[in-house]
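just leaving the lab so this will be short. below you get a single protein, a line of residues and a line of whole numbers that encode the local backbone shape. id like you to explain what the token line says about the fold, in plain words if possible. thanks a lot i owe you, the record is right below:

…
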Amino acid sequence: MQKKEVNGNILTVKLYELNYTREEYINLTSPKDLKKLDLLITNHSHRLKTKDKIRYQEILKKHRQLINKKTPQLSRFSHH
């Protein structure tokens, strides 16, 4: 039986190393974790299966939009 992939807001990212599979758990409601997911997709794309990578990118995009809606855009410009 396959493990349910999206457990609430936790995404399991499977990284296929040479002789083992590593799993990273990403909390999709945390901007810090979304950044980590972004880096995983970017830096470890050779360790991801293509269909997974596409799915992760979709999920990342969707949750970034959710977070951007929640976060007021002022913060970006308030560094004086």
